[in-house]
């Protein structure tokens, strides 16, 4: 049968004509779209990592690099993967994946769930159980999903409710019932904003603090806070309303899944403990440190726990201690209070306020000195001053100190008020070249993020809340995202230049970490991982496959990985990510964007 246009019109086959035009339109749009994503414009956004050497405060050399692990390289087989930019290699690494097994498999944190090592730590060393003990070699299994796992509730709703099936841990609902930490409501866990010291909601408590000490100026001069022993991190979650960014932390202990709840809620949090080792933060980092009934014996172990706070508190910064020894005067509490008075005086902390509220609680606020005058005029050099020449600024598997670190010289300046602080000259940068490189870096990231990352890349920014910058440099990536409703954990790898003080100076948060080891966080903690020029150095020290396994563990299904690196690195990484069933696109020969799906190995 002959088909002509005339014939079709005469036969009034309008539905057919309509469908035909829709098809044509679809083909045209697809062609335009593909030609855009596949166009290989030879543009190089050459931002790199800062070139100038900065902040080499440490006179002690960094820890010796972990020996290179030489594991057999994966072999590859070719498959054609649809919808991928032509230049991205389509190879799939021939790796056989299996699921992690055992009672904690879905929530597996390799360095905190090393039960074999933990069991051996008895007596005084019990505290060490909650510190990092990484298995050797790194695990090669993939964490399974909890039954009924769903894409998490979006911020800001997530601050108040999350899916129960995503974090199916009901113990705190009962255990902290009278303190309003968390309740169960059908398919959800609900967080009413209560806590041990703020049963009736954290906002009253925060306002009380500001009335007690107006100089705190939440969100202006007091921008970066550390909440020690944070529970489910409601304090940090609500402080965001005041433009305050809080690093909330607590150990993995009997407060079941507290940090997992915090991260599921979209609140910045990490697993850590005040135990026998330094926290993974730089000196003079936090504007304010808060502890409400955080159960740390500050004067124990010769006062080392409080000396650790002294190390990481900014000169002139405040420590808020809201705990029973402040407002209960039975014998037991009085002993603790007296010990705290002696210790804080010996390290020259001033009491700037002490208050008792009608809710029955009370708190004391201390301030760290800005100059060394008081240290020098102490009757006894106890605790001693740390030896300036031997002072080691690297806080990675470093034991707690029993000394007072030297203050920055000559006079300490507090950062300018937020939000100007974000792009102003950081107080820890002194050299002119470093300052210039900081400004250049800030400009580059601002242009790259606004011009490329947020415009051109297949990233659904509205679903992104918890972000990790795996090699954060000066924190330019985080700074360029400041207007979005997300937060960034800036990581400074321990073998890179120590730029973490600059990140805190800017009013952002971060930690040190070695990516050759698993991170102290729960599986499915982050919506996005960003890795700028990370893998080149890393590949010399450990197996990139293991780093990919760790990224797979900490990224949520549906989450994004954005790698900015050389083609050599991308070509190594892509087949491994494909074997994990991640979908991948490559842009301008230096940006790899991968999305993790829901795939898990069968067994
Ligand atoms: C009673 S809860 C208080 C929680 C929260 N601050 C509040 O007021 O609701 C005690 C908290 O301190 C944490 N904690 C206990 N020992 C700690 C330590 N050595 N270092 C840091 N946090 C600790 C617990 O995990 C828990 O989060």
From TrEMBL:
<keyword id="KW-0735">Signal-anchor</keyword>
<keyword id="KW-0808">Transferase</keyword>
<protein>
    <recommendedName>
        <fullName>Methyltransferase</fullName>
        <ecNumber>2.1.1.-</ecNumber>
    </recommendedName>
</protein>
<keyword id="KW-0472">Membrane</keyword>
<comment type="similarity">
    <text>Belongs to the methyltransferase superfamily.</text>
</comment>
<dbReference type="GO" id="GO:0008168">
    <property type="term" value="F:methyltransferase activity"/>
</dbReference>
<dbReference type="GO" id="GO:0016020">
    <property type="term" value="C:membrane"/>
</dbReference>
<keyword id="KW-0325">Glycoprotein</keyword>
<dbReference type="InterPro" id="IPR029063">
    <property type="entry name" value="SAM-dependent_MTases_sf"/>
</dbReference>
<dbReference type="InterPro" id="IPR004159">
    <property type="entry name" value="Put_SAM_MeTrfase"/>
</dbReference>
<feature type="transmembrane region" description="Helical">
    <location>
        <begin position="14"/>
        <end position="34"/>
    </location>
</feature>
<keyword id="KW-0489">Methyltransferase</keyword>
<keyword id="KW-1133">Transmembrane helix</keyword>
<keyword id="KW-0812">Transmembrane</keyword>
<dbReference type="GO" id="GO:0005802">
    <property type="term" value="C:trans-Golgi network"/>
</dbReference>
<dbReference type="GO" id="GO:0005768">
    <property type="term" value="C:endosome"/>
</dbReference>
<dbReference type="GO" id="GO:0032259">
    <property type="term" value="P:methylation"/>
</dbReference>
<dbReference type="Pfam" id="PF03141">
    <property type="entry name" value="Methyltransf_29"/>
</dbReference>
